[in-house]
Amino acid sequence: NGLWYGFIYAVTGGNILPCMIAHTLYDCHVFMETWMSMNDQMDYTEDCCCTPLSILDQDGLEQIQKEAGPLFTDSTISYVRHFFYTFDSEHVGSLSRSDVQRAITYAFLDDPRVNGSSNNDGDDDTHTIIQPPTPQRINKLFDGMLKRRAKQQEDVGQENVEAFPENRLRLCEFLRVLFVLKGNPQAT
């Protein structure tokens, strides 16, 4: 971009006004492209959250709800669905490895254990500061979830299982990875 502005400056005989106009137009273009992309993702997220879950995802969420207990409410499920589809950059209803990396990184941005906030009731001044999960740890869990899925498909039989996206995690699988990492982000 700088070379083009220099070229325009030289061609116009040292007049900076065309360079300023060109730069302003470029900035407007980039802003609008970003704005359109973000609105498209937000619309996709909202559309996905308004549609009913697949039978497979319903069953998986019911199982997670049983395991998690009463704190895993319908509003929590709604939040998780919004979070999941926000990171589905390809709009296919599942997350790729890079989508999962971005989502997990975002999930740990405000974790008080990562940023050094107190994790106790205020009786003393101790803080537990942890490191967010590494990309290698996330990849290991991602691969483990794919292996778990393959094992389940073998046990049930291929004809009785909904089509799974290859090398992508569905909502329930991503949620399990997120729960494992939130529970213990540094374990191997």
Radius of gyration: 23 Å
Major sheet characteristics: none
Assign an overall shape. elongated
Low-pLDDT stretches are: none
Query: How far apart lie the N and C ends?
Result: 45 Å
- Percent of residues in beta strands? under 5%
Mean pLDDT figure: 83
| Strands, total number | 0
Helix-residue proportion: 55-70%
What structural category do the secondary elements indicate?
mainly alpha
Question: H/E series, N to C?
Answer: HHHHHHHH
| Total DSSP helices | 8
Could you characterize the architecture of this molecule?
- This protein is mostly helical and 188 residues long.
- The chain is built from 8 helices and no strands.
- The protein has helices at 2-11, 17-50, 55-68, 74-86, 97-107, 112-115, 135-156, 171-183.
- It is elongated.
- The two termini are 45 Å apart.
- The model has no long low-confidence stretch (mean pLDDT 83).
In short:
With about 190 residues, this protein is an all-alpha fold.
Strand and helix layout:
Blueprint: H1 2-11, H2 17-50, H3 55-68, H4 74-86, H5 97-107, H6 112-115, H7 135-156, H8 171-183
Helix pairs in contact: 1-2, 2-4, 3-8, 5-7, 7-8
